[in-house]
Batch of 2 targets.
Target 1
Amino acid sequence: MTTKSFGGIRAEPKFTQSPFWVSEISSSDLQGSYLVTGNNRSYGDVALVSGAKVISTLSLNRMIDWNPQTGVLVCEPGVLLSDIQTTFVRQGWMLPVTPGTSLVTVGGAVANDVHGKDHHFSGTFGEHVLSLELLRSNGETLTCSKTSNAELFRATIGGLGLTGFITKIAIQLRSVKGPYFDAEVIPYGSLAEFFELSEETETQNWQASVSWFDCSTSKAGRGSFTRGNPSDTPFKSEKAGSGLSIPITPPFSLVNRLSLNVFNTAYYQLQKMAAGKSEVHYRDFYYPLDGIANWNRIYGPKGFYQYQSVVPMTHAEEATSEMLNVIRRSGQGSFLAVLKTFADRAPAGLLSFARHGVTLALDFPNRGASTEKLFQSLDQIVAEAGGTLNPSKDARMSREMFQKGFPGIAEFSKYRDPNCVSDFSKRVID
Amino acid sequence: MRIVIVSATSLIAQNVAKVYAEKGGHEFVLVGRSLSKLGAVANDFRIRFPTSVFETVELDFESTDSIRAVSAKVFTSKVDLALIAQGSLTNQPKASADLDYLQQQLQLNAVSVALVAEEFADHLETQGGGTLGVIGSVAGDRGRAYNYSYGASKALIEIYCQGLQQRFAKSAVTVSLIKPGPTATPMTVDHDARKATPESVAKTIVSGLESGRRVIYAPSLWRVIMFVVRNIPYAIFKHLSF
């Protein structure tokens, strides 16, 4: 059976197992090479494996314990973030960190130590994991936290599923007054303005921020900056989702130079009109694309790549503008270019991607060799600036680039479960 | 509402419970073979649906004593809806090769369903009303080479429900036979577009139960498909392989 990543990368696992009960999983299920997976939202190959067993956690989606006084939730690894948000926002609690989609599992969020719009305020997902239970192929079941099996805990957070089977997770939610954000949208004309806005946002202690920017038209470098704080408005009755869906995969990518120019210009104008302050629902604030099911299909059968880099603050501005120039010259603009600063915080995991600096995320349709050529030029800029790429998005970085960008890998290998393997680990680690 | 769900750990039953619980506060009695699995499901429901109440009751599907005792216990308060959902997809080649396996499958899929339905029917009659939903399958609509052991069990359920429906025609007891088509597990969702999700199947079941339908196909398209399947002449049918 072929499995496919969110970006359209394929793999042929030996077989897939989808257990229903944590109580029925034992180390005998972990014999031979295996990879535990979630909701397949990773763009590249961290959640893919060929020639080995896949154990899906999608049916292990039960909440185990909830303490409404402390906001601590204990759950199975297959619970979706969307379930947590909708269940607890009514009771005055939300996830302190969430990526740009809520359709990922808690296990996946831990294994990729995901980040989101609130990185500068609350760090990565892993910082809010209190403890987790890990089943290893040698038969051990270990409770890991900052105080017990602390090294294994650090290796498992952001460990790309390579340290064993996470069967239980305790996370700390954050108390909120309601599901709304007081958001502010600020159009900007240049990268320099972006950096000024980022700094101001961090000093003013805004909880969440992100920025879209135009990297395809002649006015590239302009963009719009969005920031928000939780609003005091209490919970009102929910509206239903849009129900929009991309029903089929078109035979070719709908993202091309023409549509990009039209989109980027139109989006900029829309953002300009939307500029100013408003109250928005957390779903629209955090997850604008979750309302459109299967939006990845617009890229056609060849799929797309997301290129997400981080470069240290010291070189951020020049590296980013250089990348922008390379992208413009290549003519392969990106539909969604997202720019954000990461705060200076100690990473939660040994292999955590988020680190002090500026992160740039770009979507490119897969055009084969010409796309790879562009990526190599971008790699060079990123590497020279002392940066790296996000494994959860990556499908093609070199072994050297990974090893350089993740110096914790040597220490990590001590805590790896010897039976865990992924197409990503085969490509850049093993 | 007070809702009793037998084999509450099954995927469709869990999703039916969720549809009701999302609509508001109800009292649920979750019945099943394993208290530990029922406990896991009940805990999850208690966290997700704090306005509803969930109780768990253990039942041995092979024991008439257990079926009698559990029925008496759950009907000590008025039951508005009882859903009988136990069943296991029989592996036909295995059933053909192994009589003990076949016996155990027929016992669970056909006999235990009839026994619980009969016992519940008596209690519903005594309390003077309520709805009984029984999960059959489209597989019971016509015997086919690839799943006739499972299909025959589900056919027994169909005739049993028809009998109960006629028996209660003049009373306030409603009996609905539910026939789900093949249902996707989370893993098959992306791969097999012909299979409906348990969430959508559950929604169809609940709206069918609420409108008191005698036979609920879920998704409802299966009513048409199975009408065609039932009416294919045998001369053609024998050459088909599905």
Target 2
Amino acid sequence: MEFYRSHVLVCGGTGCTSSGSNKIVEAFKEEIKKQGLDKEVKVIKTGCFGLCALGPIVIVYPEGSFYSLVTPEDVPELVSEHLVKGRIVTRLLYHETLDEDEAIKSLYEVDFYKKQHRIALHNCGVINPEDIEEYIAMDGYQALAKALLEMTPEQVIDEIQKSGLRGRGGGGFPTGLKWKFTYNAEGEQKYVACNADEGDPGAFMDRSILEGDPHALVEAMTIAGYAVGANKGFVYVRAEYPIAVKRLQIAIEQAKEYGLLGNHIFDTDFSFDLEIRLGAGAFVCGEETALITSIEGNRGEPRPRPPFPAVKGLFGKPTLLNNVETYANVPQIILKGADWFASIGTEKSKGTKVFALGGKIHNTGLVEVPMGTTLREVVYEIGGGIPNGKKFKAAQTGGPSGGCIPKELIDTPIDFDSLISIGSMMGSGGLIVMDEDNCMVDIAKFFLEFTVDESCGKCSPCRIGTKRMLELLNKITEGRGEDGDIEKLEQLAETIQSASLCGLGQTAPNPVLSTLRYFRDEYEAHVYEKRCPAGACKSLLKVVIDEEACRGCTICAKQCPVNAIQGERKQAHVIDQDKCIKCGVCIEKCPFHAIAKR
Amino acid sequence: MKTLEELKAIRDRKISDLQLRKENFEYRIAVGMGTCGIAAGAREIMTTLMEEIERRQLKNISLTQTGCIGVCRLEPLMEIQDSKGEKVTYVNLTPEKTKKIVVDHIINGHIVKEYTIGYAEDINK
């Protein structure tokens, strides 16, 4: 082993990559070489640290200094100050890690990380995902060895069942039971598959696991193959995740090279092979039967269930299909035992859940919390609250299949059953926070636009029904709503729910139903008063200048992109409502705060 | 790879590398790398330490540098802090002294009194 006195970890997740972390890696390598430290300091590109809002992120060990918003220009200073002279560059430290008296706190004492419990993400941001030996050093593949050498397939399934692990893709079906069904299904040839077709807008949990810890998936699927009696696995991942695909490919190749995939693993009779199948990014392909059809090479359309994939799946054979995050928990359960896992979480929802925090929240990023953590803790303590002093209005969980949680229910514990009881669902883990400026009708419209786009068109309730619902919502948000429209929406929603073929259609009306449930008054204001209480629906707004406050400085008139503002110098200006596109530029630019949306 | 032993061998070989990214170290070594330290040959001490740690496969060691602590005339120097926070400062180092300190202090837990700052100060009096 070569000893390096310092490790520079640069986040190589999609978030930080898009804010330029590759350039930072290059800059570090170059600068370290220039200063003659390349035998002393190692630069490692890792997976996501979770705090994407502050990317690109760099952590320097052994001090554990957490630098945020780093630019390539900062690198020479970091190298010559921190790595050469041992002086931490406090200017670039994540401000939460600095105490008031300038003492530096450990990363794990910071609010964002303190309340988290990382199981599925435990290696993300810690190891180099492209180096199998780093994964092995973190006890990687030990669970596979334990399963193959010390346990029977029945014992593995038993352990998973006892752990209480439930599907992290959204449905929350008991994972052990699914494994048992596949194990019990008759057939010589069986398959294991992984759903990495994460499609919810704003969700990136699975992507981050694939990018940060791809070997966890390889190991878990191999264990699953052993448990259910399959010798072949498929990972269905969208081509829109190029970094994830590349790292998974590297992981599979390395595992083969080390004999952890292939024939006679650990000298047993068990052989297993893994293959990646790229999807084109259709939302419906996240539905299990559509996903299977797509892997087979056909157009990704769902088919009726039963038969369930456990009985008749890929190529007509019994198939075990789980989501990435579900698999990521498996090696830990085998290694640390079902009792350990079952001790985390709530009575019916065990373990942790990864959430992708987005929307109106400070710490946009990835968090993993024990089941049963309240929404308030996630939003305010981990997420750092709402920016610009705005008030929390609601959170949307479960993406286009889920629903919203209003502020009255912010103390609801987040677990599968509590969320369903309030009309939302866990979903895959997207958590979008909305403040008082978000119009709930507009949000419902946004998600419905998504499902209309993504409906595969096979069954008419979904194909036509969602389209009709969207038309009604457009009508309402444009100020053409009529008496009875809300009732029509409800009626359509019910029909679509009960008559659609697959989960996409059955859940498509959820955003509308749940916003109606908690924010019916907003719908009514749109329909009957032609008013948008949040001030978000453009057609229902007027931008007006307060005559009293206007000093006639002409700034607004100069800034208006459509020349809709008229008025003499030093006299009150007026907006021509026919020309105005309600872009809001004048509101921002007015030095006297005389312009507002009404 | 055919056996669990092979897997464990890879883990053990690699684990000391990753230990650096945890925050519980058995010993923290800080070499004085201010201008005074560098001029007196601190870099050589640093490379000696790295070589020794690598050669002896030492685990749970954090090796960092620190700035000038104010006794420039005693450079090169280093501080070794154990997990209980006890700190020993070694001064007027040479690569040979450094190697002895690694063996006696880090591996066997015996402080090398004659190289410590207290000893050096007593002699100077």
